[in-house]
Amino acid sequence: MENDKIFMMIRESILVFSPLKETDIKIDSNLSGDLSLDSTDRLELVLDLEQKLDISIPTEDYGWCKTIEDVVLLVKQIQAQNTKEAVK
């Protein structure tokens, strides 16, 4: 999946549980600082992405994500890994 599509999906997910406006959420937005997402919000985001993308995001993997771009890259890595495993 392309980065832009993943970003838009992340933004849509955040808008469901956050009072932020669409224009507040940018690719380089810091999850804690710029968007004020606490650990519960971050977990809700991860659970929503797992459901929408049919992937599993281990806690230790999303813990290092500081920005929206980090989350996009993590999703891409997991999708690539799942594709490699499906080919085997």
From TrEMBL:
It comes from the Bacteria. Residues 1-79 form the Carrier domain. This is Acyl carrier protein. It comes from Priestia megaterium (strain DSM 319 / IMG 1521) (Bacillus megaterium).
